[in-house]
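Spend some time on this chain, tokens included, and walk me through the fold:

. . .
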Amino acid sequence: MNKFLLLSLFFTTQFSFSQEYTVNKIPEKLVDNAYAVIRQSNESIELIKIDELKYTEDVVITVLNKAGDSYVNARSNYNPNTKIDLFEATLLDSNGKEVKKFKSKDFNDQSYITDGQMYTDERIKYLNFTPISYPYTLHYKIISTIKNTLFIPRWFPIIAPNLAIEKAIYQFNNKTNSTIRLKENNFNHFNVVKSGDINNLKYELIDIPAFEEEDNMISLRDFFPSVILASNQINIDGRKGTFDNWNDYGKWSYENLIQGKLDLTPNQKLYFQDLVKNAKTDREKVQILYKHLQNKVRYIGVQLGIGGLSPFPASYVESKSYGDCKALSNYMISMLDAVGIKAYHTILYAGRQPIDIDDKMMYQQGNHMIVYIPLKDETIWLEATSQTAPFNYLGDFAGNRKVFIIENEGGKIISAQQFNTEDNQLLVNGKASLASDGTLNFEFTENSRGLLYQNFASLSQLSEKDLDIRLKNRFSNFPGINFKTKKFTNNWENAVFTSDFNFSIPNYAKIQGNNIIVNIIPINREETSVKKSKNRMFDFMIGTGYIDEVSYILSLPAGYDMPTFFEPINVKSIFGEYTLQIIPKDKTNFEIKRIYKQFSGKFSKDKFNDYVDFRRQIAGYDNTKLLLEKL
């Protein structure tokens, strides 16, 4: 081939590549509402051996503005079981022309230490790039060899709002004799093109416009397509296993990850037995040992080798007085084992938005470990990483979801501690007196329990300065509020937090001539900023159901009267219930009683504007004002 032909082919290739990724070639519908557009995402997985898979990410992304920078995921984690074979990146301008091919000095390589971790063998390599103009296009390719095959990279092509997709491809090739399990989610609303068989799969998704985040929208994983694969033969840090179901995986996990880790010495066991010798019940024994755990240890992540899945032995925590969630849970279970109480290592997805362990197919799941204790008369759940969590309280970080418990004879998925609407309460009871100058004196007790407990429990741990800031923020509608007393009681055994307040609010009521206008709900008013939507895309959810009750006696100032009878207000909806009553006790004292019950649940998008109306209605009633006439 002559030199002219070679040069022609080279420039033709370069020109073709440039033309392919010019910004003006992005379809207009993909630019709308988009901060960035994935021009091409090609994920490829080859399961080569039981202990080796090759993972390739080949991505071209056009970033339209600064808000799209966060969608550039040019990074890769690695450890002794993961090797990065190739990491390259090229910057293109808006015309698709190459501006820079990044060199090794442009990539950072550092230990991947997250909050609460002390040390880890996990590292991260990433492109250290700060753009100076927009739009720009980045083409990066990462190839990794992974020895741990319990986790096969999954396909979640639509990962965030304001991100459009021109083309996304996911390919899987099984070169082993393993049996592959497959789970496809949420394909109904999307034109996912699938080809091949279980050992040679390909999925393709094209021209997906960006979506905008909506108020109260359901989780992305409940709406957008995903593909999850798992092999029945796996390797973890040199330990191989074969299983198809949760029961067999639980047995394998116990034998390979947990067995032998309850290694307290006979003298250490005697110490814990002596610690609970005066306890009258197993529940009391668990309380004593949990309090010992909270006083002795602190959470620090130590992620080394198989330690990413397997707990460090109880002896390690006993000597170091720290550990990660697995180590501390294992230590708690070891103490209980020493006094004859059976407890279980429990895996779950932790986080404010509940995610269930999926029981439809066995694949590696979860990001946290807690302790499950089935006593004879009740079930106890313990969060071993917290030094302040109350006894038998998971809160919204670990409650209301399905979890996986590991037993020596197997494993199973069960429901963790549940917090229903009636369990989550904020109850105010007190008395108030209104002065003729509009000052309100209010003395009340406020109890919070269930999921509402965690909103208030930290008050008792704050310094006076921080407490003052917190209370001023909470009662920011009342400038000049004067606290006469404030007292907090944290019931650790039952997860109930009590606040006792006595304060005065000058100018609370408005003076209008000879009359006074007063808002009858002085605290915990329901408010809303949610707006209606003309073209809502997603179903929505109300995450927490609760009961919010305000009940108090209001004493009118001398010489004033409530001139009209107040008709009780009652509202019932699929979203909640509301009642407001004013009950005369005598001529100057009235009982004010408001109960708002919010229901949790998932609702169809066509109900969203009804929900907005409901919230506005409740907020309106909570802003009810009364006219007091001077006699």
